[in-house]
Amino acid sequence: MEKRDVMIAGAGLVGLALAAALARNGMTVVLLDRVLPSANSDPETWDARIYAVSPGSAAFLSSVGAWQALSCERIEAIESMRIFGDSGATLNFSAYDIGERALAWIVEERALRAALLPAVHVPGIDIVTGVEFASLAWSADEATLTLADGRRFAASLIVGADGVHSWVRKAAGIVAEPKPYGQQGVVANFDCDLAHHGCARQWFRADGSVLAWLPLPGRRISIVWSASDALAAELLALAPDAFAARVAEAGERALGALRMITPPVGYPLSSLRLPTSIAHRMALVGDAAHGVHPLAGQGVNLGFGDAQALASVLAERGPIGDAGAPILLERFARRRAEPVLAMHAVTDGLVRLFGPRTPWLRILRNAGLAAVDRLPMLKRALAQPALR
Ligand SMILES: Cc1cc2nc3c(=O)[nH]c(=O)nc-3n(C[C@H](O)[C@H](O)[C@H](O)COP(=O)(O)OP(=O)(O)OC[C@H]3O[C@@H](n4cnc5c(N)ncnc54)[C@H](O)[C@@H]3O)c2cc1C
């Protein structure tokens, strides 16, 4: 059995980006997934799964050759952002004010996947798809993954990039269950009457839900409405015109009338915090390592941050030939601890701050938003971690 440097279980966006980055550093990789990542991208339709990719993630994707492969007709820059509290306060961010071209870039999931695929079809990476993982075993110097069809793969390091219900995480004995927020992220795309001018809008609503309007190319927007399970069920049951009218109304008709172009889908939202993201010859990246609320649009950015950190720790390993050496894994875990903790604190803090309907808390949070809006230095400090 051929032994690779790294075996990546899960070829979602984070697994794909990690594989590409490792191969660029001359490492041998096997990438395994139950589905074949496809590059299906019909230009006539829009994917309801969209990402707000931070400038930091865009730079990482550029370094693996994927960002430049995206068609500029499918990317929109967020040049400004308006956040509305639940009793009139607003907080405004502008890319121009903080010296950036964009606060983030809106890209469809399928476009990102299509851009990453050529970067993994390169020498040094073997791709194995249509597989179910069956068992994982560790010896002193390697990890061996056996598939349901009996095939076996060995590597110095196994990386779990297999999403929030990670099989690898369980196999490594890291016990943690995602904690449901009792909410769903309802996503859909719309044509709108008025131009959005690259402005993203987010409303913290009095019913505890959070509605984000994100600019797509042309007069189009994509929405993420983080709503209680009951409200999500109600929204998903509406006829297309009624749903579009409801979304337009909830967004104060800021872009005139809306027409639905991609039907709504609801994703259950959960929080996942782990005691550790490493074990013997094992590291976790992406949603396998952390689950954050989408209200900050940072989930995949955290995952790209993991991939970038792991690839650079392994590239800088100097005389240490072994990609699974404990000292390297500890270095990786240390590098990621602070950004992951900070993102949990921000997203869970906002959910707790804007969830309850207590009147004094409503006054306090709106006063807070308005106060931050008057402090450009503080706004810059708040924006920087999300950008990088
Ligand atoms: C509504 C919503 C909106 C969001 N918006 C944003 C946003 O704007 N910006 C942002 O940064 N993030 C956002 N996120 C978060 C983002 O979607 C995730 O963080 C990201 O998709 C995680 O990628 P991943 O590669 O880690 O995992 P996944 O995309 O879950 O990939 C895991 C892969 O592992 C494979 N796999 C899993 N188990 C097995 C198994 N047993 N055998 C074989 N293969 C297996 C799967 O087939 C899959 O390909 C949002 C999330 C939601 C729910």
Question: Could you walk me through the main structural features you see in this protein, from its secondary elements to its overall organization?
Answer:
By secondary structure, the protein is an alpha/beta fold. The protein has two domains: 3-41 and 111-178 and 272-351, FAD/NAD(P)-binding domain, CATH 3.50.50; 63-108 and 181-270 and 355-387, 2-Layer Sandwich (D-Amino Acid Oxidase, Chain A, domain 2). Helix content is 34%, strand content 30%. The protein has ten helices and 18 strands. Strands 1, 2, 8, 9, 10, 11, 17 and 18 form an eight-stranded mixed sheet that branches. It has a seven-stranded mixed sheet with strand order 6-5-13-14-15-12-16. A hairpin with a 2-residue loop joins strand 17 and strand 18 (282-284). Helix 1 (13-24) runs parallel beside helix 3, helix 1 runs parallel beside helix 7 (299-315) and helix 2 crosses helix 7. The protein binds flavin-adenine dinucleotide. Flavin-adenine dinucleotide binds at residues 10-15, 33-35, 51-52, 132-133, 161-163, 167, 185, 187, 224, 267, 286-287, 294, 297-301, 303. The site of flavin-adenine dinucleotide has 30 residues, from helix 1, strand 3, strand 12 and helix 7.
Largest sheet: 8 strands, mixed
Give the helix level as a range of percent: 25-40%
Q: In CATH's first tier, which class of the largest domain applies?
A: Alpha Beta
- Kindly report how far apart the N and C termini lie: 40 Å
User: Structural class given helices, strands, pairing?
Assistant: alpha/beta
Annotated CATH architecture of the largest domain: 3-Layer(bba) Sandwich
**What is the count of helical runs?**
10
Question: What is CATH's topology name of the largest domain?
Answer: FAD/NAD(P)-binding domain
The CATH homologous superfamily name of the largest domain equals FAD/NAD(P)-binding domain
Shape descriptor: globular
Which consecutive residue ranges, at least 5 long each, have pLDDT under 50? none
Tell how many strands the DSSP assignment holds. 18
Number of domains: 2
Strand content: 25-35%
Order of helices and strands: EHEEHEEEEHEEEEHEEEEHHEEEHHHH
Cofactors, ions and other ligands in the entry? flavin-adenine dinucleotide
On the 0 to 100 scale, the average pLDDT is 91
